[in-house]
Design goal:
Elements (H helix, E strand, L loop, with lengths): L1 H10 L2 H20 L2 E13 L5 E3 L6 E9 H9 L4 E4 L6 E6 L12 E6 L2 E17 L2 E2 L6 E9 L2 E7 H6 L3 E3 L2 E2 L7 E8 L5 E4 L3 E10 L1 E13 L3 E6 L2 E9 H4 L9 E5 L6 E5 L2 E3 L5 E6 L3 E9 L12 E7 L12
C-alpha cells in the first residue's frame, strides 16, 4: 500500500520535480565550484535592551574586525550589506561585564566561514544612571562691529539635565555651547547652538541645544564742548558774561559724531520783554534727538541790557566753539537743564 503511494508521488508532476532537482544541482555546483575570496569587515556592535537605570561608563571599542572566507559573490554581498553584531543587555546588572564575540551573532550565510575576530571579547563597565541639572555658558567667537558693544547673551534654556554615571556627572560644573559667531553684527539677534559634551560620557535629557539671544547696542560716548551763549528776542543792545559755557553731552556714537557743529548744539538765553538792566539767566541747551545734556558750566550767565536799541548796540558773541574732550562713557548723568 505504501509502495503504491510512493510511486504515485514520484510520478505526479514529475516534470516539475526534475526541473527543481536540476536547478538545485546547478546552484550547488555554482557555489561549490565558484572562486573563493577572503575579505576583512568592520562590524559595529549594536547594544540592545539596555536597562533604563544603567549606563556604560568606560571607553570600549564600538566595532570589531572580522575576516570572512567564502564564495566571491557571497563575500562581495557582505561587503555592501550593513552587518552588525547584536548584544542583548536585557539581563545586565551594575558592575563589569565581558562580551565574548563569536561568529554565531553575525548571521552569515552557511557557505561563508569566519576566519578571524578581533577583539574576541569586549569589556563593559555598567553603573547606575544619575541625572543632574547643570548651567549652560555661551562660547562666543569674533567681535561685534566697530562703534557697537555686546550688552549680554541670554540662553534658553539656561540649564540642561545631564544623564550618565555618577562620577562623570560630578565632573561637570557647567556645559559650554559650541562657538557662536558674532563677528561684525550691529543688531540684536538670536542663534541656535549645540552643546559641547565630547569630553564626557554623558547625554542631555531632551534637546542637546540652546537658543542664544544676543544683545548688541551702539556705544555711548561723552563729549565736552565750549559753545557761545546766544541771546534771542532782545529789543535792546546787550552783553552776556561769560560769552561761552562748557556743555557735557552723551549719546550714541552716530548721534555725537558731528554734534559739535554750530547748528547741532546751541545755548540760548531768551531776552524778549526785558528792559535795560542786569539779569541772571540760565541758558536753554538745544540738542538733536538722541543726544542727552548732562550738565553745563556755569549753569547761569549774567546779561547786561543797555538803554540803546538793539540796532545800535549788540554783544552777540561770535567765538567759535571748540571741542574740549571726547570721553567715552556708558553711565548717564541724571542732571538735566531747563530754562528759568
Amino acid at each position: 500500500m505504501k509502495a503504491g503511494k510512493t510511486q504515485r508521488f514520484w510520478r505526479k508532476n514529475i516534470g516539475l520535480k526534475l526541473l527543481a532537482l536540476a536547478f538545485a544541482l546547478f546552484l550547488w555546483f555554482f557555489v561549490v565550484g565558484e572562486e573563493k575570496a577572503e575579505v576583512g569587515l568592520n562590524v559595529p556592535l549594536e547594544l540592545v535592551n539596555m536597562p533604563d537605570d544603567l549606563v556604560i561608563s568606560n571607553e570600549f571599542n564600538g566595532a570589531i574586525d572580522v575576516r570572512v572566507y567564502g564564495p566571491r559573490s557571497l563575500v562581495r554581498e557582505l561587503v555592501t550589506r550593513r552587518l552588525s553584531y547584536v548584544v542583548d543587555l536585557a539581563k545586565a546588572a551594575p558592575g563589569k561585564m565581558t562580551l565574548h564575540i563569536t561568529s554565531e551573532g553575525m548571521h552569515l550565510p552557511r557557505e561563508v566561514q569566519v576566519t578571524r575576530i578581533h577583539p574576541s571579547q569586549v569589556n563593559l563597565v555598567l553603573e547606575p544612571l544619575v541625572r543632574r541639572e547643570a548651567p549652560v555658558e555661551a562660547v562666543l567667537k569674533g567681535a561685534v562691529a566697530a562703534d557697537y558693544e555686546l550688552k549680554g547673551v541670554e540662553l534658553k534654556p539656561a540649564k540642561v539635565v545631564l544623564a550618565g554615571a555618577a562620577r562623570e556627572v560630578a565632573k561637570v560644573k557647567k556645559v559650554l555651547t559650541q562657538p557662536i559667531d558674532i563677528s561684525g553684527i550691529t543688531v540684536s539677534t538670536k542663534a541656535v547652538a549645540g552643546l559641547d559634551l565630547h569630553r564626557y560620557h554623558l547625554r542631555v535629557v531632551g534637546e542637546p541645544q540652546v537658543t542664544a539671544y544676543i544683545q548688541v547696542e551702539e556705544k555711548i560716548i561723552r563729549k565736552s564742548l565750549l559753545i557761545p551763549v546766544e541771546g534771542a528776542g532782545a529789543a535792546y543792545g546787550y552783553k552776556i558774561d561769560p560769552r561761552n559755557i562748557e556743555v557735557s553731552i552723551q549719546g550714541p556714537v552716530s548721534a555725537l559724531r558731528n554734534a559739535d557743529r554750530k547748528q547741532d548744539i546751541r545755548a540760548v538765553v531768551q531776552l524778549g520783554g526785558l528792559g535795560p538792566g542786569t539779569y541772571v539767566r540760565r541758558p536753554v541747551i538745544e540738542a538733536p534727538s538722541g543726544v542727552e545734556i548732562e550738565k553745563a558750566e556755569p549753569k547761569s550767565v549774567r546779561v547786561n541790557i543797555f538803554k540803546e536799541k538793539h540796532s545800535a548796540v549788540s554783544d552777540q558773541p561770535s567765538a567759535k566753539r571748540s571741542q574740549i574732550s571726547d570721553l567715552k562713557s556708558r553711565k548717564p548723568v541724571a542732571e538735566s537743564l531747563c530754562s528759568l
